[in-house]
Write a structure and sequence with these properties.
The chain has 9 helices and 19 strands. The chain is α+β, with helices and mostly antiparallel strands and 344 residues long. The strands form 6 sheets. It has a 6-stranded mixed beta sheet with strand order 4-6-7-8-9-10. The protein has a 5-stranded mixed beta sheet with strand order 13-12-15-19-17, sandwiched between helices. A two-stranded antiparallel ribbon has the order 1-5. Helix 2 runs antiparallel to helix 3. The chain is globular, with a radius of gyration of 26 Å.
């Protein structure tokens, strides 16, 4: 309250307050500007760092997958059924791998969207990236290529081929990480826990994989899922003829590796195929990493009708898929009969 006999002018008070705000702004504008700039900078992520942490996450998850299997502690249970009526299994291998992979990536890049096949309430705040960048990545990939965190979606599959995992068909098992930017697959990592081999690729930058020297589509050798091979065999024979070789295999990650040249010295036995076809619904964490690997090598992974798959938003891809490298992808698509996965 003003002293008795003195009346404060509202206009004068207003002017005084405005001057005060102006002085404060002048004093702190630089500090505020610097903090805002730092905040904006933090919202960008280095894609080479994301590749390196993706490799580390896949390897750490793979160790859990292998450990649980070797200790015979799978504790498998059904978490529901697929559209085709098959059980979707969950094991301790899936959960332990998820916890390692999800928490490692989310703790390091908290602003990035991370989608995992599994969901779990266990939070490991101690999970931290080693900051190690593998030598082959340093050799082939330059740093400084950034993307805004809002544009990035990470898809992780803590254990691909769970059904085969429970059947001891561990050659099909992989752990996978994919980084999509604006819905396009940019980084793909497929790790084989039981051999220790890790395939990686950064679209437009490099990969430790390469296509085989030759492929065929007259007719092609086609790799398909063993979980619904009856339907897809008829579909493939209608497309390419009864002489087409069809290989049944587990795991989408394994099927993509079957299209590529495995490095010399790898002990694992991988089937070889010219084309990978899937005619029912499939989740994006199953296929995003493979899509990035193929794209980095000049290949393609599309729906059955040739549409690019958007790796943002919902997890379900309803259009089936066709994957190839080293062949005329459009020519493959043109041979395929009309098929609507939503009606089968």
């Amino acid at each position: 309250m003003a002293p008795m006999g003195i009346r404060l002018s509202p206009l004068g008070v207003g002017v005084f307050l405005l001057l005060g705000v102006g002085v404060i702004y002048h004093l702190y504008a630089g500090v505020i500007s610097n903090r805002l700039a730092a905040f904006r900078e933090r919202r960008n992520v280095d894609l080479r760092d994301l590749l390196a942490i993706s490799v580390e996450a896949a390897v750490l998850g793979g160790r859990e997958v292998k450990k649980v299997h070797e200790e015979k502690g799978l504790k498998e249970r059904s978490k529901g059924k697929t559209k085709e009526g098959a059980n979707e299994l969950l094991t301790m291998g899936d959960l332990q791998s998820h916890r390692k992979m999800y928490n490692l990536i989310k703790n390091t890049f908290p602003e990035v969207t991370v989608n995992s096949e599994e969901h779990d309430s266990v939070v490991d705040k101690e999970a931290a990236w080693s900051r190690d960048i593998p030598a082959d990545i340093l050799d082939k990939i330059e740093g400084g290529k950034e993307a805004s965190s809002e544009s990035v979606t990470v898809w992780i599959d803590p254990l691909d081929a769970t059904q085969e995992y429970t059947e001891n068909l561990v050659q099909y098992v992989t752990t996978m990480v994919c980084v999509a930017v604006d819905g396009k697959p940019v980084i793909g990592v497929i790790h084989q826990p039981f051999t220790g081999f890790t395939a990686w690729a950064f679209v437009g930058q490099g990969s430790n994989m390469q296509p085989r020297s030759s492929y065929s589509i007259s007719p092609p050798s086609v790799i398909v899922s063993r979980s619904h091979s009856g339907q897809v065999k008829n579909y493939i024979h209608n497309a390419f003829g009864n002489s087409t070789t069809i290989t049944e295999a587990g795991g989408a990650g394994y099927k993509v590796l079957a299209l590529l040249e495995m490095p010399a010295g790898e002990k694992s036995s991988i089937d070889q195929a010219d084309v990978y076809v899937h005619i029912t619904f499939i989740k994006k964490w199953d296929i995003c990493a493979g899509a990035a690997l193929l794209m980095a090598l000049g290949g393609h992974m599309t729906t059955l009708t040739g549409e690019d798959i958007d790796y943002s938003g919902e997890a379900l891809n309803k259009g089936g898929l066709v994957a190839s490298v080293g062949v005329d992808h459009k020519a493959v698509l043109e041979k395929l009969p009309s098929w609507n996965p939503e009606k089968h």
